[in-house]
Amino acid sequence: MPALLVRHLLWAAALCAAAPVHAESFITRLLNKPVPGGVAVVPLGDGPTAPVATYLDRRTMVLRDDGGQWIAVVGIPLGTRPGTQRLAVQEEAGTRTLDFQVGTKTYVAQHIKLKNKRQVNPDPADLARIEKETAEQLAAYRAFRPQGPSNVMLDRPVAGGRLSSPFGLQRFFNGEPRNPHSGLDFAVPAGTPVKAPAAGRVVLVGDYFFNGKTVFVDHGQGFISMFCHLSGIGVRVGQDVARGEEVGRVGSTGRATGPHLHWNVSLNDARVDPAIFIGAFKP
Ligand SMILES: [Zn+2]
C-alpha cells in the first residue's frame, strides 16, 4: 500500500476516534425512564451557562453531565398521558421548546383493609385538617433552591428490608378507590434509622393525618425526599443534613397498617418512582 494512502487511512481513523460519539451519559443511562411516574433526561446542548428549563410551569433540575452537556432531569407526573410532552428552555440566545416522548407503564392494583374507618372516609373536621396539611406539603414540593444535589443516584434511606408496596399501585381502601401510591415502601422494623439519601436541607416537618410524623428533605433544584409514618423525628426545619445523616426513625404513625418507611421522591413537583434513583426500577 502506498505510504501516502496508509497515512491517509491512519488520519481518517484518528478523526473517527476523536469525533464526538454522543454516548449516553451516566445520568441518562441510569435515570432516563420516560413513563408516567418516571423521569425524562432531556439534552439541552453544551453552552457556557446553564439553561433554565420549565415543564408544566415548574422549573426542572438542570445539570451538566459527564460529557459536558447540559441535561434537564424532568419528573413526569403519574397521571400523564403517553405521547409528546414539551419542555420550555430559556437560554442566553432566547427561548425554545423541546419535545420529548412519554411511553406507557402498567401499574397494578392493591387492596388494603383498614380497621380505622375514619382513615378511609375522614369526618368533616378531619377533612379540614387534611386540606390544610395537603397545602403545606404541596408548598414544600414546589420550592426550588438553585443549588444542585450532592448526588442524583440516591442511597437507600434505610438499611436492609425488602421493598414492599411499589410506587404507582392503584389502591383500594376497604374496597374504595383512592389516590395511587405516591412513594416506595420499605418493610423494616420500627426504630430503624432513616438516613438522608443525599445531602439537603430540612424544609418541613409535621405530624399529619395520613402521613403521620413526616420529614421533607430538599436535595436542591426541586429534588425532594419525603419520609413518613416515622416514630420519631431527629431534625428541625432549616437544618442542613449531610448524605447519610439520620433524620428520624421508622414507625407506623398516620395511616399505616404496620411499621414501614414510606419514601416519596419529587422532581419539579411531580412524585416519581424512588426505585429509579436506587437502581431498582422495574419497567
Ligand atoms: Zn407507602
Automatic annotation (TrEMBL):
GO molecular function annotation: metalloendopeptidase activity
Coiled-coil residue spans: none
Keywords, comma-separated and alphabetical: Hydrolase, Signal
InterPro entries the record matches: Cell_wall_metabolism_enzyme (IPR050570), Dup_hybrid_motif (IPR011055), M23ase_b-sheet_dom (IPR016047), Peptidase_M23_N (IPR040487)
Pfam families recorded: Peptidase_M23, Peptidase_M23_N
Superkingdom of origin: Bacteria
Domain Peptidase family M23 N-terminal residues, every copy: 32-105
Domain M23ase beta-sheet core: 180-274
Signal peptide: 1-23
Protein name: Murein DD-endopeptidase MepM/ murein hydrolase activator NlpD
